[in-house]
Amino acid sequence: KAGVTQTPRYLIKTRGQQVTLSCSPISGHRSVSWYQQTPGQGLQFLFEYFSETQRNKGNFPGRFSGRQFSNSRSEMNVSTLELGDSALYLCASSLDAHSSYEQYFGPGTRLTVT
Amino acid sequence: GESVGLHLPTLSVQEGDNSIINCAYSNSASDYFIWYKQESGKGPQFIIDIRSNMDKRQGQRVTVLLNKTVKHLSLQIAATQPGDSAVYFCAETANSNSGYALNFGKGTSLLVTP
């Protein structure tokens, strides 16, 4: 079974630009979550999507948004990029069964803002 | 606000010894806890989880202990191997039946020496 895939793996953008990251969950998984990982703040929850609806949201500004498609694939968008947005963005998927909350993470997208 | 933190940023152990990684949390409403392992260049990998109605859970070479009285979580790794070298994160969430919004600790770097 293929794991969680994220594209692109590396990205360099300039301040003020916008960026879209993509995540394909494990087949059959309906929940997709996004996290930002930085050396200073660690792993921080951005948002979670389930059945094309945002179910949970972290404490990030409105510049960070996401969506989920009917095939469970998800995208996140960051507008008006700031230097502080440089981070590893991780996507995780889950079956969303109440017997297990195991999340499977992708390798991440390394975003550098210059 | 509520936070999840780790007692030690780095831990060095000899191959074959047991490792104990500790984690403190502050949200008394947390009802689900997870340990993840992250190797360099990879996304976090699920190790073991525990619900708040349990105080101990065992997996293959790993044991998680939960002390709700002092809000403390620990991960024990038996017979530590070089392949166990990685950063370990604890994570928690409250109201886990409402989806995934994990709150991660900063991480402990485990180094296994021969």
Structure description:
In chain A, about 0% of the residues lie in helices and about 55% in strands. Chain A has about 110 residues and is mostly beta strands. Chain A is globular. Chain B has about 110 residues and is an all-beta fold. Helices cover about 0% and strands about 55% of the residues of chain B. The radius of gyration of chain B is 14 Å and the shape is globular. The interface between A and B is medium-sized, with 28 and 25 residues.
List keywords for this structure.
heterodimer, A: mainly beta, seven-stranded mixed beta sheet, four-stranded antiparallel beta sheet, 53% strand, globular, B: five-stranded antiparallel beta sheet, 0% helix
Short structural description:
Chain A is 0% helix and 53% strand.
Major beta sheet of chain B, specifics? 6 strands, mixed
Query: How many distinct beta strands of chain B?
Result: 11
Portion in helices of chain A: under 10%
Strand % of chain A is: over 45%
The overall average pLDDT of chain A, rounded, is 93
Mean pLDDT value of chain B: 89
Structural class estimated from helices and strands of chain B: mainly beta
Taking pLDDT < 50 over at least 5 consecutive residues as the criterion, the unreliable ranges of chain A are: none
Assembly status: heterodimer
Radius of gyration of chain B from CA coordinates: 14 Å
How far from one another are the termini of chain A?
37 Å
Figure out the total of helices of chain A.
0
Q: H/E series of chain A, N to C?
A: EEEEEEEEEEE
SS-based class of chain A:
mainly beta
Taken from the alpha-carbon principal axes, the silhouette of chain B is globular
DSSP helix fraction of chain B: under 10%
Beta-strand content of chain B:
over 45%
Write the H/E string of chain B, N to C: EEEEEEEEEEE
Largest sheet of chain A: 7 strands, mixed
Number of helices of chain B: 0
DSSP E strands of chain A, number: 11
